[in-house]
Amino acid sequence: MEGKIRLAVFGQKRLSREGGIEIVVKELCTRMAQNGCEVTCYNRAGHHVSGAEYDKTIEYDGIRQKVVPTIEKKGLAAVSSSFFAALYSAFGRYDVVHIHAEGPAFFCWIPKLFGKRVVNTIHGLDWNREKWHGSVASKFIRGGEKNAVKYADEIIVLSKGVQKYFMEIYGRETHFIPNGVNRPEIREAKLITDKFGLKKDSYILFLGRLVPEKGIRYLVEAFKNVKLYG
Predict the structure, then answer these.
(1) CA distance 93 to 138
(2) Backbone angles phi, psi at 103, to 5 degrees
(3) Who has the most CB within 10 Å: 107, 144, 194, 214?
(4) Cα 61 to the chain's mean position, in Å?
(5) How far apart (Å, rounded) are the C-alpha atoms in residues 23 and 217?
């Protein structure tokens, strides 16, 4: 492909640290922009957790951001923003549309219909999460999974288990690309000790949602059985 790759991205709420998808999108798009790609992120409308000054459309590290119409009601925000993002990306001058998560992939056929190459990153089998069991949302998300299989040019998965699932259920080849992390800055844990009274090797830090599928109960039980040396 000659010239710069023009990329549209949606599925995230916005470029922030609200969740795993948002972090992945921000890190990935930042690097792609640095490598010469023209990146446009379609974000949900609504208040930004980082502050009201981020609510408006801004450019972030070379990434163009656009806010799409969003019905700000429970169960409709993700669906409505994904639909409009798919529509905008379909009519925009883009080479590739990168969709994140299964729910937003429900609309992947729209940019595909307009000749765009579509990539879908599956961050997990969202329809199977505890909070969606037996709901209309679960069926919608499962529909997104099936549409990704049918219409996406390429599918990226983050685990071998999900890769095996797509092959066994759909016979669909996927690309296993696990999330990376930035190299940490090693610092003395003085702040943690001063504020919480915790010392090195006396605690385990978990960052994530407190939901059953994260398996926090196993971490708690494992920590109980750890022999601490002081």
Answers:
(1) 32
(2) -60, -55
(3) 144
(4) 19
(5) 25
Token output for 118: 């579509």
Token pair recorded at residue 157: 């998965």
Token pair of 182 as six digits: 């930035």
d(CA 66, CA 88): 10
53, two tokens:
């000054």
Which pLDDT band holds residue 213 (cuts at 50, 70, 90)?
confident
Residue whose tokens read 């409009």: 84
Query: With helix as H, strand as E and coil as C, how does the chain read?
Result: CCCCCEEEEECCCCCCCCCHHHHHHHHHHHHHHHCCCEEEEEEECCCCCCCHHHCCCCEECCEEEEEECCCCCCCCHHHHHHHHHHHHHHHCCCCEEEEECCCHHHHCHHHHHCCCEEEEEECCCHHHCHHHCCCHHHHHHHHHHHHHHHHCCEEEECCHHHHHHHHHHHCCCCEECCCCCCCCCCCCCHHHHHHHCCCCCCCCCCCCCCCHHHCHHHHHHHHHCCCCCC
Q: How far is Cα 90 from Cα 93, in angstroms, rounded to an integer?
A: 8
